[in-house]
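User: My advisor asked me to double-check a structure prediction for mannose-1-phosphate guanylyltransferase before group meeting. I don't want to rely on an old file, so could you generate it fresh from this sequence?
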Amino acid sequence: MITSLIMAGGKGERFWPKSRTNLPKQFLNISGNKSMIQQAVARLEKLMSIEQIFVVTNELYAELIRAQIPHLPIDNIIIEPSGRNTAPCIALSSLYIEKRYPDNTMIVLPSDHIIKNESEFVEILRTATTVAERDGSIVTLGISPSYPETGYGYIESSKEVQIVNGMEVHQVRCFVEKPNVITAEGYLNAGNYYWNSGIFIWKSATILHSFEAYMPEIYRVMQDIKVKMDAGLLQEDIHSEFLRMPEESIDYGIMEKANNIHVIPCKFGWDDVGSWTALDRISERDEFGNVIKGNILNIDTKRCIIESNNGKLVATLGIEDLIVVDTDDVTLICSKEKAQEMKLLLKELRIQKMDQYL
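Assistant: Sure, here is a fresh prediction for mannose-1-phosphate guanylyltransferase from the sequence you gave:
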C-alpha cells in the first residue's frame, strides 16, 4: 500500500506580508487558481486515493485544511501539538499511518512546492516507490540544478547507478548544507550534485529502523506513543509524549547519517517558492522583467515584483530590483537581494510587540 504525508505546519515567513500566521503560504494561491496545498493533494490523487493521503499540521491550520480540502477524511489530518521540526513531525505521523495501513510505503513531501510537469512527477514517484519497496532503502528526489543556488541544500551522488523503469537511480554519497556561491558553482560544474527537494520515499519499517539507529531518543518516544495509541488513549496523552521529542530535522537526524539512500535526478519544473524572488522563476514577466499582480501603474520600472492584494492602486516610477507588496494593513518595500532576510522584519515586529502584523 502506498501512502503519502504532506507536511503543512510551516508559517511561510519569507512570504510576509502576504503569508501570515493565520494564513501561511501553503494556503495561498501563489501560482494558478488553487492554493499550494490544494495543488499538492491534486498531484498525489493521480497516484492514490484521497484515503491514502495524510496531512500533518498544527491545530491552528486544521480548519483551513478542512475548508480547502473538504474531501480529505478528517482522520487523515494529523495534529502535532507543537512545531518541533521535521523529524518529530514525521515520527508521529508514521505511527498514525502505520496503524491504519500496516507495512505501507510512504511518500513524504512539503505542502508548498510548485511542480510544473505533474505527469513526470507522478511517474518518478512510481519508480521511487518501486526502489523503496524492492531494496528497503530510503529514496529521495534530487532536482538537477540549473544555476548555482545558495539557498538549497545539495545531495552528492556516487558513480553507482541502476536503471529502473528507464530512470537513473543513484546511490547517495552525502547530503551537504547550503553552500556559498563559489561552492555552489563547483557543485553545478561537477554534475553529480542535486538540489535537495525535501521529498522522501520509504517503507514504514525502513524509517522505523532509521529512527532506532540514528535518532534513538525519538525512537524511544515513538515506542511510548505506540503503546498509548494501541491502548486507545486520548490525543492529549499522545501529545504529552510527543513534546518529549528533541527538535530536529529529518535531514540532519537521519539523511546525513544513513548509508542506504538513493536519489533519482529530476527535471519536472520544481520550485520551493522559498521567498518573493521565486516569482521571477515561476511567473510571467513583462517586457521590462517585472512580475505584476493587481492594480499597478508603473513607469520606468525594471525587474521588480509588485503586488497589490486589496485593489488599491500601487504606482511606481524609476525603480529597479525591488519587491513591493501592498496588503490591507502592511506595505512591504524590499530590495531583491534582501528577500531571504525577511525574518529580520518579523523579529523586529515581535520585539516591538506588533504581533497584529505577523
